[in-house]
Amino acid sequence: MIVDDSTVARAVLSRMIEADPAFEIVAVAGTAEHAIEALDQVRVDVVLLDLEMPGAGGLEALPKVIAAAAGAKVMIVSSLAEEGAEQTVAALAKGAADTLPKPGKGNFYGRFSEVLIGKLKALGHAAAPILEPAPQRSLSAQPPLRAMPSDPIDILAIGASTGGIHSLGAFFHSLPKKIGVPILVTQHLPGPFMPVFARQLGVVAHRECLVAQDGMQIRADRIYVAPGDAHLTLEPAGKSIVIRLTHGRTASGCMPSVDPMFASIGAVYGSGAVGVILTGMGRDGVEGAARMVACGGSVIAQDEASSAVWGMPKAVLDAGLACAVLPPDKIARRVASRTEEQPGCK
């Protein structure tokens, strides 16, 4: 479904999408209200939603659109996805699965259609309605989970991509306000979004949240977010641990990438390192998780049912690196269970 008040935009997007035989446009709407009404009559896999529309704007109506979509993913396609970072990050926090700025001067260099189709394929099909209890997944089909240590942790690092902002909100909502360790976050977002993202994450997490800068000393119960143009890593500096921003190529091709972050916390903290891999497309985090586990650290992956795109968590699970596969709120409780005995964490 395409939801946009511009007839031209609806026509152009429809033409681009239907050029790929994997997709069919089953409904269009000019306002969020009309989209919500239509979703009572038609089932879709993905809703493309503009933010600037008459009546209830896309951002205001987003929770109702998500509810009416009954398992379909909502992707924001709007000029505000580039110009209005505040609104776009807010949309992701409210449950949008992904965002894409409309093509404009300098955007995509003629590759908008290719980028759009790639994102749609990554989002995939809507979850099927649950009519009866789903059969248990065969244990033999799932790689065995690793044992998770019970001793207190020293560092927490979280990696996420598509749908990650919503999952981060759920995670921090269930995490105690003090756990006594620093928290690192690598979320795939363009650089201009990072200050807004850090500010909003700090509010949700009830903690100070900063965009990481090279040379910063890390402190307990403070969140450090990778900037959009560098990887977030750690290294010892005397008696302190400091942030080092790096720019090297990674196997995933992501910038920032979860891999260097995970690898560095494993090298510095060993068995005291815990990584969390949340929803996202691709395999970013697998190589870093492997190096962290080799150093004695542990990794928890988000489960499929709560993920917008079960790519990154599944890759970690399939590689045999996960010690648990859980929704974000239960991941938070599992992390908290390893911090309760630390001073100041009650």
How many domain regions? 2
Q: How many distinct helices?
A: 12
CATH topology of the largest domain: Rossmann fold
CATH class category of the largest domain: Alpha Beta
What distance lies between the first and last C-alpha atoms, to the nearest angstrom? 48 Å
What's the alpha carbon Rg, rounded to whole Å?
20 Å
- What percentage of the residues does DSSP assign to strands (E)? 15-25%
Unreliable spans:
130-135, 341-346
CATH homologous superfamily label of the largest domain: Methylesterase CheB, C-terminal domain
Largest sheet: 7 strands, parallel
CATH-defined architecture of the largest domain: 3-Layer(aba) Sandwich
* Helix content range: 25-40%
> Widest sheet: strand order?
8-9-7-6-12-13-14
Inertia-based shape: elongated
The overall strand count is: 14
Mean pLDDT: 89
> What oligomeric assembly is this protein in?
single chain
Catalytic activity: [protein]-L-glutamate 5-O-methyl ester + H2O = L-glutamyl-[protein] + methanol + H(+)
Modified residues (4-aspartylphosphate): 50
InterPro entries: CheB-like, CheB_C, CheY-like_superfamily, Sig_transdc_resp-reg_Me-estase, Sig_transdc_resp-reg_receiver
Protein name: protein-glutamate methylesterase
Describe the structure.
- It contains twelve helices and 14 strands.
- 34% of the residues lie in helices and 18% in strands.
- It starts with a strand and ends in a 9-residue tail after the last helix.
- The protein is α/β, with parallel strands linked by helices.
- The strands form three sheets. It has a seven-stranded parallel beta sheet, with helices on both faces. The protein has a five-stranded parallel beta sheet with strand order 2-1-3-4-5, sandwiched between helices. It has a two-stranded antiparallel ribbon with strand order 10-11.
